[in-house]
Structure formats: structure tokens, C-alpha cells
Design brief:
The protein is of the alpha+beta class and about 450 residues long. It is about 35% helix and about 20% strand. The longest helix is centred in the middle third of the chain and has 22 residues, at about 230-250. The protein is globular, with a radius of gyration of 22 Å.
């Protein structure tokens, strides 16, 4: 490397040469090599920066295969092909993605590098969340279609730490703000401090936000980033979650990305989707009106997403978000600028887009995006015609649209009896995520909850 090579700007690292320059100047001492697991958490190892450059960049790294075959509690589980006691829980490789470097402002001296999982045969691991999404993007690219997505991330802020919440059994949680502060610009001091600090560290990491707003539930906020490539958007979402937890720890604030942290309160991960072909938008015709392709995509989303629910609503808690009056959808419906529907046709002319309001805040963004893109291609392939749009209240009990399942058990049943997951995702991926969903359900069945005690302790 030439001595004249200047250090990159904070948060901007484009290649190993940029990284080496920062290491030589003492600005970076640690490299975190990270791969998203099934739940959408960053897993991996921290490396000395010199060791990473001298060894990992050429030889790769490894993790136990169960990282991609476990649950929220990191238990070793049966039923997965890639990792089990029968296979001895061997290693899988991690290959750094040279397009995905991030200098973390909330961890000074640290570069985070996203990695792709590699199987024993040297091929990318089919069931890894990044790979599952990349496959759908490749299929669309082969048709000459470029995808842009935007994610709206809602989450709730509570006073204290995760440790203090655990000591009380996660009861008597106190939100950072009281009442509805929807669209408010006069935030309580601690909320304002949290939002300011989180916005700052994201910008310094090269992840400037588009907008921040207060939401309707006590302590609830929403972060929106500019639209971009779906894989980059999913990576960025995981960095937002890590940054929010780091900033929260410093300020005595506990953010939660649960879909329903409290009865009657729901947090979503809304996906805004637009498609382009030859730099021309596919969702608007030459006169700026809603195109036939947009209608086909809407038809495909409504037809396939019901059978792919474990990808966008992966937990038992996910289904407790679907409550009337919370702006979470209750039916598979669509409408023009209608927030009571599962799909909202938004924007105008060349900027027309489809907002998918089904995923909750607990969704793995790679898998939720995979479900959306697979369903969109399904609509284009079969030229699906959507039902009539909803005009008015989609919560109307007389709606002819199919209901969203109210439990993970019902969603798993749809997944297992439908040919759609295997046809759109491959048999390997469909089988893997069916096992993951079943384990999530099984982990809840024997648990005695506080609601069990409230209803039965003195009455049974």
C-alpha cells in the first residue's frame, strides 16, 4: 500500500486497503466479523485488526454450525440438517463481504464486517438469511429488475436496563414517555437525548437516517432510512438495533423490538417496495397511473404471503400484534393510501410504491424481505389479479378478505400444507425454516405465564 493512501472518512470503509490504512493509523484495533442468525441477530467473533488482515481476509473464519440452527435462547436443537448432535456440531465458514464494512461510532476502534456463511463444500450456505435474500435478488436481477426497499422500524423505549427489567420478571415496565406523542416534536428530555445520540452515532457510522418520529404508544418511536438495495437495508437494520441497545445502555434506556411488548401495543417493521426495469419504474405506467405490473405484484403478495408467514411473523408474540385499532392489519387486503390494509399503495407517479404492513418489529429483515420478493415474483410469473381494493375501513368484520392467522401454530400449518414455500424458496430452505418455526412454538407450550397465574391462581 502506498504511504500516500489517505484514511477514509469515519464510517466509510470500502475495501481491505481502507481498513489497513485505519489500522496503521491506530484508528481501528478490532474487527467484528458478523453474520445474521435465524432470528436476525449479529453473531460472530471479534478479531485483533492485524490478525484479521493477515489471516481472516485470505483464509476466512469459522463458527459452529448451530448459529444457523438454533432459537432465541441459543439452544442446541434437533431436526436441522446442517447442525445436530448426530453431525457433531461441526464448523461452517464465514466469508467476509468486502462490500459491507462499517466503522462503528458506538464502539470506538471497531470495524464491523458482514460475512456470508459457507458450507463444507465451499458453497454459500443455502439457509443462511443473507443467502436466502440474495437468491431472490439474483432471480429478479436475471429478469432485469432492480429492487429498492425502505424499512420503517418501530420500537418501544423503557426506563432502566435489560438487567433491571429481568429482575422484576419484565413486569411493571415504565415507558420513557407517557401517553400518545404521535408526531410530537416536544419530546421529554431523556427521549430527546436518546433520539439525538442514536441519530448521531448512526450518521457517524455512515448510516444517516431519513426521519424519526414518535409513535402512538407510550415510549414508541419509528426510525426510517432512505430506500436502497434490500441486502444493504437489512444489514443497516441490524446495525440500528445494535446501536439502539448501545446508546440505551449508556443512558439507562431499554429499547425493545418485540412485536407486542404490552397487550394492545404493536410495533411493526413496514417494508416499502419499488421495482425498476431499465431505470424505469414498474409500478407506474407512462402516464403515472398504477401499472399492470403493480397489480400483479399486489396479487402475488396477497396470494403467497399467507403461506410464508413464519418468515415475516416468526414468533408466538408476533401474532399478538394483530389487534383491532392498532394499525396492524387483520386481513390480507390492499388499498390506496389506506393504513388499515395489509398492503398500502403509496406515493404518486414514478414514486409509486407498495408498503407491506404485515411484518412486526421482531421480524428478521432478511427473511421478511425474502418473503416479499418471492411473493412479488410469484405475482409477476402468474400475472395474478388482485381482489378489489378496500375503500374505507379494512377492519370491518364483513370484509371478504382472508384473515391473518392469529397464532404461529396456524401459520406453521399453512406453511407445511402449502406448496408455495418449497416452490418459491427451495425444499432445503422450506424444510429448515419449518423446523425453526416448530421449535419456536414448542418452546412456549409448557411455560406457565403470568396470565395463567392471574386467571387461575385463586379461581381454579
Amino acid at each position: 500500500m502506498s504511504a500516500a493512501h489517505s484514511a477514509p472518512a469515519t464510517g466509510v470503509v470500502n475495501n481491505f486497503e481502507d481498513l489497513r490504512s485505519l489500522v496503521e493509523q491506530g484508528a481501528v484495533t478490532t474487527v467484528a466479523l458478523a453474520a445474521p442468525d435465524l432470528q436476525g441477530r449479529l453473531k460472530g467473533k471479534r478479531y485483533d485488526a492485524d490478525y484479521f488482515l493477515d489471516h481472516v481476509t485470505t483464509n476466512g473464519a469459522s463458527v459452529c454450525g448451530y448459529v444457523f440452527a438454533t432459537d432465541w435462547d441459543m439452544r442446541a436443537l434437533d431436526g436441522f440438517e446442517i447442525a445436530s448432535f448426530d453431525t457433531g456440531y461441526g464448523d461452517l465458514g464465514l466469508r467476509p463481504d468486502v462490500r459491507a464494512f462499517h466503522q462503528l461510532a458506538w464502539q470506538p476502534g471497531t470495524i464491523l464486517v458482514f460475512a456470508d456463511a459457507v458450507a463444507a463444500d465451499g458453497q454459500l450456505l443455502d439457509v443462511a438469511p443473507r443467502r436466502v435474500l440474495a437468491r431472490q435478488l439474483g432471480l429478479l436481477a436475471a429478469r432485469g429488475i432492480k429492487v429498492q426497499t425502505g424499512l420503517e422500524a418501530e420500537f418501544v423505549l423503557y426506563r432502566g436496563s435489560y438487567e433491571s427489567a429481568a429482575r422484576t420478571g419484565f413486569q411493571r415496565l415504565r415507558p420513557l414517555a407517557q401517553g400518545s406523542l404521535d408526531y410530537a416534536l416536544d419530546h421529554p428530555p431523556l427521549t430527546a437525548q436518546f433520539l439525538d445520540q442514536l441519530q448521531r452515532v448512526l450518521a457517524e457510522t455512515g448510516l444517516p437516517i431519513e426521519a424519526i418520529k414518535s409513535e402512538g404508544a407510550p415510549g414508541q418511536v419509528e426510525f426510517t432510512f432512505p430506500p436502497g438495495d434490500p441486502l444493504y437495508c437489512a444489514d443497516r437494520h441490524l446495525l440500528l438495533k445494535q446501536a439502539a441497545r448501545s446508546v440505551g445502555h449508556d443512558l439507562g434506556v431499554a429499547p425493545t423490538f418485540m412485536a407486542a411488548p404490552v397487550t394492545g401495543i404493536g410495533s411493526g417493521l413496514h417494508i416499502h417496495l419499488s421495482l425498476h426495469h431499465d431505470e424505469q419504474p414498474l409500478f407506474a405506467d407512462k402516464d403515472g397511473h398504477t401499472s399492470q405490473a403493480a397489480r400483479q405484484v399486489i396479487g402475488g403478495l396477497l396470494d403467497a404471503l399467507p403461506d410464508l408467514a413464519p418468515l415475516w411473523a416468526p414468533t408466538v408474540n408476533s401474532y399478538k400484534r394483530f389487534v383491532p385499532g392498532t394499525f396492524a392489519p387483520l386481513t390480507y387486503s390492499w388499498g390506496s393510501d389506506n393504513r388499515t390494509c395489509a398492503l398500502r399503495l403509496a406515493g404518486h407517479g414514478r414514486h409509486r410504491r407498495i408498503e407491506i404492513r404485515l411484518p412486526g418489529a421482531d421480524a428478521n429483515p432478511y427473511l421478511a424481505l425474502t418473503a416479499v420478493l418471492a411473493a412479488a415474483q410469484h405475482g409477476l410469473d402468474h400475472q395474478h389479479r388482485p381482489p378489489h381494493p378496500v375503500i374505507g375501513n379494512a377492519y370491518d368484520t364483513d370484509s371478504p378478505n382472508a384473515d391473518i392467522p392469529r397464532s404461529l401454530q396456524a401459520a406453521i400449518s399453512h406453511w407445511r400444507t402449502s406448496p408455495v414455500p418449497e416452490r418459491l424458496l427451495t425444499k432445503t430452505v422450506a424444510d429448515h425454516y419449518a423446523v425453526a418455526a416448530a421449535h419456536e412454538l414448542d418452546s412456549h407450550e409448557p411455560i406457565v405465564t403470568s396470565e395463567d397465574l392471574r386467571r387461575g391462581f385463586s379461581q381454579a
